[in-house]
Amino acid sequence: MKTVRRYPLVVAAVVATTALSALLVSPSSAQPRPAQPPRSARESAPIDLTGQWVSIVTEDWRFRMVTPPQGDYPGAAMTPAGAAIAAAWDPAKDEAAGNECKAYGAAAIMRVPGRVRISWRDDSTLEIQTDAGRQVRTLHFGNVAVAAEATWQGVSRAAWIPHGGGFGRPVTNGSLKVVTTQMREGYLRKNGVPYSASTVLTEYFDILAEPDGSQWLVVKSIVEDPTYHTAPPITSSNFRKQPDRSGWDPQPCLAR
Protein backbone atom coordinates (compact mmCIF):
# COMPACT_ATOMS: atom_id res chain seq x y z
CA MET A 1 0.00 0.00 0.00
CA LYS A 2 1.44 3.34 -1.11
CA THR A 3 1.73 6.11 1.56
CA VAL A 4 0.05 9.41 0.67
CA ARG A 5 2.42 12.33 1.12
CA ARG A 6 0.87 15.41 2.79
CA TYR A 7 3.95 17.60 3.16
CA PRO A 8 2.62 20.51 1.09
CA LEU A 9 -0.41 20.84 3.37
CA VAL A 10 1.72 20.69 6.49
CA VAL A 11 4.12 23.27 5.13
CA ALA A 12 1.23 25.54 4.16
CA ALA A 13 -0.24 25.26 7.65
CA VAL A 14 3.10 26.08 9.27
CA VAL A 15 3.57 29.09 6.99
CA ALA A 16 0.06 30.39 7.73
CA THR A 17 0.57 29.96 11.47
CA THR A 18 3.91 31.77 11.34
CA ALA A 19 2.42 34.66 9.36
CA LEU A 20 -0.49 34.99 11.78
CA SER A 21 1.89 35.01 14.75
CA ALA A 22 4.04 37.66 13.12
CA LEU A 23 0.95 39.79 12.48
CA LEU A 24 -0.23 39.49 16.06
CA VAL A 25 3.11 40.56 17.52
CA SER A 26 4.07 43.09 14.88
CA PRO A 27 5.04 46.46 16.40
CA SER A 28 2.47 48.36 14.35
CA SER A 29 -0.43 46.35 15.76
CA ALA A 30 0.92 45.96 19.28
CA GLN A 31 1.47 49.66 19.91
CA PRO A 32 -1.60 51.63 21.16
CA ARG A 33 -2.89 54.48 19.06
CA PRO A 34 -1.65 57.87 20.21
CA ALA A 35 -4.21 59.74 22.30
CA GLN A 36 -5.98 62.52 20.47
CA PRO A 37 -5.64 65.97 22.07
CA PRO A 38 -8.86 67.17 23.70
CA ARG A 39 -10.94 69.52 21.61
CA SER A 40 -11.02 73.16 22.64
CA ALA A 41 -14.15 74.88 23.90
CA ARG A 42 -14.53 76.57 20.53
CA GLU A 43 -14.17 73.30 18.59
CA SER A 44 -16.62 71.44 20.86
CA ALA A 45 -19.29 74.15 20.88
CA PRO A 46 -22.71 72.54 20.20
CA ILE A 47 -24.23 75.95 19.34
CA ASP A 48 -22.92 79.15 17.76
CA LEU A 49 -23.42 82.17 20.01
CA THR A 50 -21.23 84.51 18.00
CA GLY A 51 -22.58 87.57 16.22
CA GLN A 52 -24.56 90.66 17.10
CA TRP A 53 -27.85 90.35 18.96
CA VAL A 54 -30.47 92.97 19.83
CA SER A 55 -32.64 92.67 22.95
CA ILE A 56 -36.38 92.30 22.42
CA VAL A 57 -38.21 93.59 25.51
CA THR A 58 -41.46 91.67 25.90
CA GLU A 59 -41.73 91.70 29.71
CA ASP A 60 -41.02 94.07 32.60
CA TRP A 61 -41.08 96.94 30.11
CA ARG A 62 -41.51 99.66 32.74
CA PHE A 63 -38.57 98.37 34.78
CA ARG A 64 -36.22 97.96 31.82
CA MET A 65 -37.03 100.65 29.26
CA VAL A 66 -37.28 103.50 31.76
CA THR A 67 -35.94 104.10 35.26
CA PRO A 68 -38.81 103.44 37.68
CA PRO A 69 -39.34 105.84 40.58
CA GLN A 70 -37.96 105.17 44.01
CA GLY A 71 -40.00 102.60 45.91
CA ASP A 72 -41.49 101.05 42.74
CA TYR A 73 -40.21 97.48 42.89
CA PRO A 74 -43.10 94.99 42.98
CA GLY A 75 -42.08 91.36 42.79
CA ALA A 76 -38.68 91.97 44.37
CA ALA A 77 -38.59 89.71 47.44
CA MET A 78 -35.99 91.55 49.48
CA THR A 79 -34.67 91.00 52.98
CA PRO A 80 -34.92 93.95 55.41
CA ALA A 81 -31.30 94.83 54.56
CA GLY A 82 -32.06 94.80 50.82
CA ALA A 83 -35.24 96.86 51.25
CA ALA A 84 -33.33 99.44 53.26
CA ILE A 85 -30.78 99.88 50.47
CA ALA A 86 -33.53 100.20 47.85
CA ALA A 87 -35.36 102.78 49.99
CA ALA A 88 -32.18 104.85 50.29
CA TRP A 89 -31.46 104.84 46.51
CA ASP A 90 -30.02 108.18 45.42
CA PRO A 91 -28.62 108.39 41.86
CA ALA A 92 -26.89 111.70 42.65
CA LYS A 93 -24.83 109.97 45.34
CA ASP A 94 -23.96 107.15 42.94
CA GLU A 95 -22.78 109.69 40.39
CA ALA A 96 -20.72 111.55 42.97
CA ALA A 97 -19.07 108.28 44.02
CA GLY A 98 -18.36 107.19 40.44
CA ASN A 99 -20.84 104.31 40.71
CA GLU A 100 -22.94 105.05 37.62
CA CYS A 101 -22.44 101.42 36.51
CA LYS A 102 -24.12 99.80 39.54
CA ALA A 103 -27.06 98.72 37.32
CA TYR A 104 -24.73 97.39 34.59
CA GLY A 105 -22.99 94.59 36.51
CA ALA A 106 -23.08 90.94 35.44
CA ALA A 107 -26.23 90.17 37.44
CA ALA A 108 -28.20 92.85 35.57
CA ILE A 109 -26.50 93.69 32.26
CA MET A 110 -28.33 91.13 30.10
CA ARG A 111 -31.62 92.79 31.17
CA VAL A 112 -30.49 96.25 30.03
CA PRO A 113 -31.98 97.00 26.57
CA GLY A 114 -29.47 97.29 23.76
CA ARG A 115 -27.20 95.21 21.59
CA VAL A 116 -24.59 92.64 22.51
CA ARG A 117 -21.71 91.25 20.48
CA ILE A 118 -20.45 87.76 21.25
CA SER A 119 -17.11 86.53 19.89
CA TRP A 120 -14.26 84.16 20.71
CA ARG A 121 -11.29 85.95 22.24
CA ASP A 122 -9.35 82.67 21.97
CA ASP A 123 -10.16 78.94 21.88
CA SER A 124 -11.18 78.87 25.55
CA THR A 125 -12.64 82.34 26.13
CA LEU A 126 -15.91 83.87 24.97
CA GLU A 127 -16.39 87.63 25.14
CA ILE A 128 -19.66 89.55 25.41
CA GLN A 129 -19.59 93.26 24.62
CA THR A 130 -22.60 95.45 25.37
CA ASP A 131 -23.34 98.82 23.84
CA ALA A 132 -25.34 99.63 27.00
CA GLY A 133 -22.78 100.85 29.51
CA ARG A 134 -19.87 99.75 27.28
CA GLN A 135 -19.37 96.64 29.36
CA VAL A 136 -17.24 93.58 28.52
CA ARG A 137 -17.94 90.16 29.97
CA THR A 138 -15.31 87.42 29.75
CA LEU A 139 -16.51 83.80 29.92
CA HIS A 140 -13.72 81.35 30.77
CA PHE A 141 -13.81 77.64 29.93
CA GLY A 142 -11.60 75.53 32.20
CA ASN A 143 -9.50 76.88 35.02
CA VAL A 144 -9.35 80.62 35.61
CA ALA A 145 -7.27 82.59 38.06
CA VAL A 146 -9.12 84.17 40.97
CA ALA A 147 -9.33 87.94 40.62
CA ALA A 148 -7.67 90.04 43.29
CA GLU A 149 -10.61 92.43 43.50
CA ALA A 150 -14.31 92.24 42.75
CA THR A 151 -15.42 93.92 39.52
CA TRP A 152 -18.75 94.84 37.93
CA GLN A 153 -18.60 91.79 35.65
CA GLY A 154 -16.96 89.43 38.16
CA VAL A 155 -15.37 86.11 37.23
CA SER A 156 -17.42 83.92 34.88
CA ARG A 157 -16.80 80.19 34.47
CA ALA A 158 -18.43 78.60 31.42
CA ALA A 159 -19.22 75.03 30.36
CA TRP A 160 -21.12 73.44 27.48
CA ILE A 161 -24.15 71.28 28.25
CA PRO A 162 -24.74 69.08 25.17
CA HIS A 163 -28.24 67.96 24.23
CA GLY A 164 -28.92 64.80 22.27
CA GLY A 165 -26.22 62.33 21.38
CA GLY A 166 -25.40 59.12 23.20
CA PHE A 167 -25.62 55.52 21.97
CA GLY A 168 -23.65 56.44 18.86
CA ARG A 169 -25.84 59.41 17.96
CA PRO A 170 -24.22 62.82 17.37
CA VAL A 171 -24.77 65.82 19.61
CA THR A 172 -27.29 68.04 17.83
CA ASN A 173 -27.75 70.96 20.22
CA GLY A 174 -26.77 72.28 23.60
CA SER A 175 -26.69 75.10 26.12
CA LEU A 176 -23.99 77.24 27.62
CA LYS A 177 -23.93 77.35 31.42
CA VAL A 178 -22.15 80.30 33.05
CA VAL A 179 -21.56 80.77 36.78
CA THR A 180 -20.36 84.22 37.86
CA THR A 181 -18.98 85.25 41.25
CA GLN A 182 -16.71 87.98 42.65
CA MET A 183 -18.98 90.80 41.53
CA ARG A 184 -19.09 94.25 43.05
CA GLU A 185 -22.33 95.08 44.83
CA GLY A 186 -24.81 96.48 42.32
CA TYR A 187 -28.45 96.94 41.32
CA LEU A 188 -30.75 94.39 39.70
CA ARG A 189 -33.07 97.24 38.78
CA LYS A 190 -31.97 100.75 38.09
CA ASN A 191 -33.99 102.22 40.97
CA GLY A 192 -31.83 100.63 43.64
CA VAL A 193 -32.99 97.00 44.02
CA PRO A 194 -29.64 95.60 45.18
CA TYR A 195 -27.57 92.46 44.90
CA SER A 196 -24.64 91.87 47.24
CA ALA A 197 -20.97 91.08 46.62
CA SER A 198 -21.62 87.48 47.72
CA THR A 199 -24.11 86.90 44.89
CA VAL A 200 -23.79 83.79 42.71
CA LEU A 201 -25.21 84.31 39.22
CA THR A 202 -26.07 81.23 37.15
CA GLU A 203 -27.03 81.68 33.49
CA TYR A 204 -28.12 79.37 30.69
CA PHE A 205 -27.66 80.53 27.09
CA ASP A 206 -29.82 78.78 24.45
CA ILE A 207 -30.34 79.30 20.71
CA LEU A 208 -33.78 78.94 19.11
CA ALA A 209 -34.31 78.80 15.35
CA GLU A 210 -37.65 79.97 13.95
CA PRO A 211 -39.29 78.69 10.72
CA ASP A 212 -38.76 82.10 9.12
CA GLY A 213 -35.00 81.67 9.46
CA SER A 214 -34.55 84.05 12.39
CA GLN A 215 -32.41 83.06 15.35
CA TRP A 216 -33.09 83.92 18.98
CA LEU A 217 -30.81 83.91 22.00
CA VAL A 218 -32.56 83.19 25.31
CA VAL A 219 -30.64 83.90 28.52
CA LYS A 220 -32.09 82.49 31.73
CA SER A 221 -30.60 84.11 34.83
CA ILE A 222 -30.79 82.90 38.44
CA VAL A 223 -29.51 85.34 41.08
CA GLU A 224 -28.73 83.64 44.39
CA ASP A 225 -28.23 86.33 47.03
CA PRO A 226 -29.51 85.45 50.53
CA THR A 227 -28.01 88.70 51.83
CA TYR A 228 -30.55 90.94 50.07
CA HIS A 229 -33.18 88.52 48.68
CA THR A 230 -35.46 85.99 50.34
CA ALA A 231 -35.87 84.07 47.06
CA PRO A 232 -33.64 83.94 43.96
CA PRO A 233 -34.83 86.36 41.25
CA ILE A 234 -35.20 84.39 38.00
CA THR A 235 -35.53 86.12 34.63
CA SER A 236 -35.46 85.16 30.96
CA SER A 237 -34.13 87.70 28.44
CA ASN A 238 -34.63 87.44 24.67
CA PHE A 239 -32.32 88.61 21.88
CA ARG A 240 -32.76 88.37 18.09
CA LYS A 241 -29.71 87.82 15.91
CA GLN A 242 -28.94 90.61 13.45
CA PRO A 243 -27.69 89.90 9.91
CA ASP A 244 -25.03 92.62 10.24
CA ARG A 245 -23.42 94.93 12.79
CA SER A 246 -25.70 97.90 12.19
CA GLY A 247 -27.26 99.87 15.02
CA TRP A 248 -24.32 99.45 17.37
CA ASP A 249 -24.44 102.50 19.65
CA PRO A 250 -22.13 102.33 22.69
CA GLN A 251 -23.35 104.53 25.52
CA PRO A 252 -21.81 105.16 28.97
CA CYS A 253 -23.41 103.93 32.18
CA LEU A 254 -26.22 106.12 33.46
CA ALA A 255 -27.30 106.25 37.10
CA ARG A 256 -30.71 107.73 36.29
Radius of gyration: 29 Å
Topology, number of strands: 11
The general outline is globular
Reported for the largest beta sheet, the result is: 9 strands, mixed, barrel
Helix content: 10-25%
Helix-strand category: alpha+beta
Structure characterization notes:
The protein has five helices and eleven strands. It has one domain. The protein starts with 6 loop residues before the first helix and ends in a 15-residue tail after the last strand. It is an alpha+beta fold. A hairpin with a 2-residue loop joins strand 2 and strand 3. The strands form two sheets. It has a nine-stranded mixed β-barrel. The chain has a two-stranded antiparallel sheet with strand order 7-8.
Tag the structure with descriptive keywords.
single chain, 256 residues, alpha+beta, two-stranded antiparallel ribbon, 5 helices, 11 strands, 32% strand, globular
Please outline the helices and strands:
Layout: H1 7-25, H2 27-30, E1 51-56, H3 61-64, H4 80-87, H5 91-96, E2 115-122, E3 125-130, E4 136-141, E5 155-166, E6 169-181, E7 186-187, E8 194-195, E9 200-209, E10 215-224, E11 234-241
Parallel strand pairs: 4-5
Antiparallel strand pairs: 1-2, 1-11, 2-3, 3-4, 5-6, 6-9, 7-8, 9-10, 10-11
